[in-house]
């Protein structure tokens, strides 16, 4: 059975305040006069290596694990997955 690298990206929903992103923008980027940067959003990325039949079953298994162990809060977070080969 092949192994897949599945990245899970967890970030705040667009309507949720992102203080970490705001701090990076205000304290680091704008102080350095990088005024062409308008917004920064932070996220957490987890990388799973999982054995699965195919890409779709690998992604489904990883999302199942994330939901089962409450790795993210669905009320405030949005989750996306990408599989690397």
From TrEMBL:
<keyword id="KW-0658">Purine biosynthesis</keyword>
<dbReference type="InterPro" id="IPR003850">
    <property type="entry name" value="PurS"/>
</dbReference>
<dbReference type="GO" id="GO:0004642">
    <property type="term" value="F:phosphoribosylformylglycinamidine synthase activity"/>
</dbReference>
<keyword id="KW-0547">Nucleotide-binding</keyword>
<dbReference type="GO" id="GO:0009152">
    <property type="term" value="P:purine ribonucleotide biosynthetic process"/>
</dbReference>
<dbReference type="Pfam" id="PF02700">
    <property type="entry name" value="PurS"/>
</dbReference>
<dbReference type="InterPro" id="IPR036604">
    <property type="entry name" value="PurS-like_sf"/>
</dbReference>
<dbReference type="GO" id="GO:0005524">
    <property type="term" value="F:ATP binding"/>
</dbReference>
<protein>
    <recommendedName>
        <fullName>Phosphoribosylformylglycinamidine synthase subunit PurS</fullName>
    </recommendedName>
</protein>
<keyword id="KW-0436">Ligase</keyword>
<keyword id="KW-0067">ATP-binding</keyword>
<keyword id="KW-0963">Cytoplasm</keyword>
């Amino acid at each position: 059975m092949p192994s897949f690298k599945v990245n899970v990206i967890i970030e705040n929903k667009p309507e949720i305040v992102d203080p970490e992103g705001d701090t990076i923008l205000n304290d680091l980027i704008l102080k350095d006069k990088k005024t062409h940067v308008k917004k920064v959003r932070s996220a957490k990325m987890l990388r799973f290596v999982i054995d699965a039949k195919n890409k779709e079953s690998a992604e489904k298994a990883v999302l199942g694990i994330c939901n089962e162990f409450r790795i993210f809060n669905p009320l405030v977070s949005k989750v996306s997955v990408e599989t690397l080969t």
